[in-house]
Write a structure and sequence with these properties.
43 strands, alpha+beta, 12 helices, globular, nine-stranded mixed sheet
Length: about 750
């Protein structure tokens, strides 16, 4: 593959072409997490700049889409220029000499481009107005080697690449057709888009593509996360479709081995109620559905069962001795079923000897890591060395033998904590070091014959090996390079190469609905007083009772979506009924205030003494030292602007009154937080220093989506300012509606 990083660019302005020498191009990175955007205008925004297909092919016209929106009132006449690197040509465009964008309008700009050969480079987009730059964006793009497109009745038969050891990959089976929200973090990181698109895993064709891609690169088994939906009775599952609807109904199931990792994490739901539940419900289900399946992974005629959070069994079964006894009974039951026993592996991702000693006492055979935690957002070299240290240290402890795991990356579901990624070439280095390490393990241990890769498809959490937009088949090629003992001829096919797919119809339909909703949220509306200085957003809930949105009455077009909420008569117009539902204001740059702010609202409740309940929130785990919120602690109004994780809760000196409307205001002037109840200051707290921005939504009526920490009552006239209102202004706001508040 050609890796082009030159300074010869073709700039496309509408349909006119001209060459420009771009002196800064040589300094641009070869790959970036998402299109890098520099915006000058606050009213004109580039919403997205992406290729049409998930993974691009050289030799084929590829649509490139840019969506721009004008949040202002005036019409904007824009000059649009697309910069193409060498070896990429423009096929056609829907642009004229300029683009006119009316106030509140959104437009999609489309080009078709074609690469002559496999290339890793980037496109550049410039948006100018009156000769002045408004937006510069760069789009990393990968073109795979060209293939002849030939329609096929089905996916070609996989040709496995043999390996000297068993190479497996953890498999995350969350991607069901109706679980649209699980793709949210991928939408923020467009470079993660799978080659299959935002697929529905219950399709047998999805399983067959995964099998083909895996075995042709030396991966011979998947370890599926397995979730029990309720304990104490007959087995029911969550996210079981990847195995039962996908794998079991697929044509190539005999080409791929599988095993399960029991997700024993959700206490009281996903585990076992007692030993009879384990022996009479869970184990028989596994035996009949999995262990006896011809494709289930057995080594030495023993099925492998991976267990996440095995330490939770101590409480579930009544003690360490009881767990050990139960595990021995499981092995005996497997022998009675015709196996030579059962390999039990417990998950642990560290080098503290205590958890390893406990797992040994419980009677587990091996330890393994689902993933490795590598602190401090390391470089690829640091991430490689840290993982190898974990493997060596675990072995040196000599407590419990291990089946080694190597991890490719980590981001967390909300981009929290340590974030890192090892590119494919460096991952090949890690894989080779792990392969060398395996040769040092005792030959009678599973670890000398087996390696686990983290992870096949944890798209939301940020670790994945399956083909995807940024690196194509790069990770799988690295695995094949290191582990395949022979290299049978193969071509890395995509579904569109043979006229198959798409597999994301359900998601695309959902996304079209969401896009229509977003356009509705973008509507410009104002109430009297919307021109007040520093007003960022105003959510009044005054729409029709069944409206799915609440608009932003400041005129700034930052509307919010309603989920499980009703409306009722408010202090002014309608109000939000808070009873477990929630309202989400999507992340917007204007919500991340850094120096001063005011949060204002009216609330009414009949329930006294509410505790840890929130009606305006932007403080969440993974970013708990940022944001702001209003709610109730121990029956009193509470305002928080954290400086460290969940710090600086300012509670009022009086309880929240019940049975009437109450005006609440929290202000922060960069030094001091203040809390006002019905126009009177009822608390102050020193908090010097700036606020930390975050990328979270604002949740109203609740702490978060579908959360138990929700306010019970009515919420109305929520306002956010980018300045601290004065006491006089707060009194004026209170008095404007006080006569409607009730006695």
């Amino acid at each position: 593959m050609r890796n082009v990083n030159n300074n010869v660019w073709l700039w496309v302005a509408g349909l006119g072409l001209f060459f420009v020498l771009c002196t800064g191009a040589a300094n641009l990175p070869a790959m970036m997490p998402s299109p890098a955007v520099t915006n000058v205008s606050q009213e004109l925004r580039l919403r997205s700049f992406l290729p049409g297909p998930s993974v691009c092919r050289a030799g084929q016209p590829i649509p490139i889409h840019a969506v721009i929106e004008n949040s202002g009132d005036a019409t904007a006449n824009l000059d649009i220029q697309l910069g193409l690197p060498q070896f990429v040509r423009l096929v056609k465009s829907n642009l004229g000499a300029s683009v006119s964008l009316q106030g509140g309008e959104e437009k999609t700009l489309t080009w078709e481009v074609e690469a002559k050969e496999a290339i890793s480079s980037q496109l550049a987009l410039r948006i100018n107005q009156h000769g002045k730059p408004l937006t510069n964006a760069s789009l990393p793009i990968l073109f795979l080697a060209p293939v002849a497109i030939s329609k096929s009745p089905y996916i070609p038969e996989p040709v496995p690449a043999p390996t000297q050891i068993l190479v497996g990959a953890h498999h995350c089976p969350l991607w069901e057709a109706d679980k649209f929200n699980l793709w949210d973090n991928v939408l923020k990181h467009a470079e993660r888009t799978p080659a299959l698109g935002f697929y529905a895993q219950e399709s047998p064709e999805i399983s067959d593509w995964e099998t083909k891609w895996a075995v042709e690169h030396g991966i011979s088994f998947f370890v599926y996360c397995w979730y029990r939906a309720s304990q104490g009775g007959p087995v029911t599952m969550r996210y079981g479709s990847a195995i039962h609807d996908g794998l079991f109904k697929s044509r190539f199931q005999s080409k791929m081995k599988f095993t399960i990792m029991w997700e024993n994490q959700n206490r009281g739901v996903a585990g076992v109620a007692n030993e009879p539940d384990l022996m009479n419900n869970l184990l028989p289900f596994w035996l009949e559905n999995y262990f006896k399946h011809p494709s289930y992974l057995k080594v030495d005629n023993k099925p492998l069962l991976f267990i996440y959070r095995p330490e939770f069994l101590v409480k579930d079964l009544g003690g360490v001795a009881q767990v050990r006894s139960a595990l021995d009974k499981m092995r005996q039951t497997c022998k009675a079923a015709g196996f030579d026993g059962l390999y039990l592996l417990g998950e642990y991702r560290g080098t503290n000897p205590v958890p390893l000693q406990l797992m040994k006492q419980l009677g587990l055979d091996y330890s393994f890591a689902y993933c490795w935690y590598v602190p401090n957002s390391p470089s690829p070299a640091q991430a490689i060395e840290t993982q190898m240290q974990y493997l060596r240290k675990t072995q040196d402890l000599g407590i419990l033998p291990q089946v080694p795991t190597i991890s490719q990356a980590w981001s967390g579901w909300r981009d929290e904590g340590s974030i890192w990624k090892i590119p494919p070439a460096d991952f090949a280095t890690l894989a080779q070091q792990a392969k060398n390490f395996i040769t040092t393990l005792p030959t009678n241990q599973l670890g000398s014959r087996m390696l686990l890769l983290d992870n096949w498809n944890e798209w939301g959490e940020g670790h994945y090996l399956a083909p995807y937009r940024e690196y194509g088949f790069g990770y799988l090629d690295a695995v094949r390079q290191v582990f395949a003992s022979a290299n049978p001829s193969h071509t890395d096919l995509l579904p569109e190469d043979i006229g198959m797919g798409p597999y994301d119809t359900a998601f695309r339909t959902h996304q079209a609905t969401e896009d229509n909703l977003r356009r509705l949220l973008f509507k410009k509306v104002r109430k009297a007083g919307a021109t007040e200085d520093g007003l960022v957003g105003w959510w009044a809930f005054d729409e029709e009772t069944n409206a799915p949105v609440t608009l932003d009455y400041s005129g700034n077009r930052i509307g919010a979506t309603l989920h499980g909420c009703d409306r009722a008569a408010g202090i002014d117009g309608r109000a939000l009924v808070c009873n477990g539902g929630w309202v989400l204001v999507g992340n917007h740059t204007s919500l991340s205030l850094t120096s001063t702010l005011t949060l204002e609202c009216w609330v009414k409740t009949e329930v006294a003494g509410q505790d840890n309940k929130w009606f305006i929130n932007r403080v969440y785990g993974g970013g708990a030292a940022s944001g702001y919120r209003l709610g109730i602690l121990q029956g009193k109004p509470c305002f928080e602007v954290p400086l460290t994780n969940f710090s600086h809760h300012l509670t009022a000196s009086i309880p929240l009154p019940t049975g009437r409307w109450v005006h609440l205001v929290g202000t922060f002037d960069g030094q001091t937080m203040r809390l006002y109840v019905d126009g009177q200051e009822r608390g102050a707290m020193a908090r010097p220093g700036p606020m930390k921005p975050n990328a979270f939504p604002i949740c109203m009526g609740n702490y978060a989506e579908n959360h138990s920490a929700h306010f019970t009552g009515l919420l109305d006239e929520v306002k956010l300012y980018c300045r601290a209102l004065s006491p006089e202004e707060i009194q004026t706001h209170y008095r404007a509606l006080a006569d409607k508040a009730g006695p």
